[in-house]
Specification:
By secondary structure, the chain is of the alpha+beta class. It has one domain: Beta Barrel (Porin), CATH 2.40.160.20. It has helices at about 1-20, 25, 45-55, and strands at about 30-40, 55-70, 75-85, 90-105, 115-130, 135-155, 160-170, 180-190. The chain has an eight-stranded antiparallel barrel with strand order 1-2-3-4-5-6-7-8. It is elongated.
Length: about 190
């Protein structure tokens, strides 16, 4: 009798777990678009040059794609583009590509809200051209940025959701155009 109850309990537990997490829960790919507001911080060594030519804040757009790989974890790739100065004397833009690992904590009875935490790595590129009395100056620089973030997502239904995130980006090189960035983003996600 005890063996039968034990086997029944194990079978019920396995059936519950099999029903609770389907293949779609683990591998649910999505795409997204974000609007970003970025506050920049210049290194002391470049403040005189960069402070006059590089912006202290700028707006950008991000295309994101990702998937959930476990009930509480996901991975996301991103491509970010910004063109923040386009004047005859100054032209500058920034690009970034990379990936983040997301921690996901569903909330609510229907799990429509989720708290998010992220850690990732991005390759950042800044290009700056400006005219001075001595002539034209060009400034190109690439660097790796370490990304740390937190945010929240609200899912309207099975397919559509909105997300708000804050990220802090720290750069590897001390002479990079920015020592770090603070990024606030608001975007939409579409789950397939």
């Amino acid at each position: 009798m005890k063996k039968t109850l034990l086997l029944s309990g194990v079978a019920a537990l396995v059936a519950f777990n099999a029903n609770a997490y389907s293949f779609r829960d683990y591998w649910s790919p999505y795409i997204g678009l974000d609007y970003n507001y970025t506050a920049t911080h210049h290194p002391e060594s470049t403040k005189n040059i960069a402070g006059n030519t590089l912006p202290s804040n700028y707006h950008s757009g991000t295309f994101a794609f990702g998937t959930k790989v476990a009930p509480y974890m996901g991975v996301e790739g991103f491509a970010e583009f910004a063109k923040y100065e386009n004047k005859p004397e100054v032209r500058s833009y920034s690009r970034a590509f990379g990936a983040d690992v997301l921690g996901i904590l569903p909330l609510g009875c229907h799990q429509e809200f989720s708290l998010l935490g992220s850690i990732g790595l991005g390759r950042y590129y800044n290009k700056l051209k400006y005219k001075q009395a001595a002539g034209k100056t060009e400034y190109d620089e690439y660097d790796w940025g370490y990304r740390f973030g937190a945010g929240m997502q609200y899912n309207f239904n099975e397919n559509w959701g909105v997300r708000a995130m804050y990220r802090h980006v720290v750069f590897n090189k001390p002479h990079f155009a920015y020592t770090n960035l603070d990024v606030v983003s608001l975007g939409v996600r579409y789950n397939f």
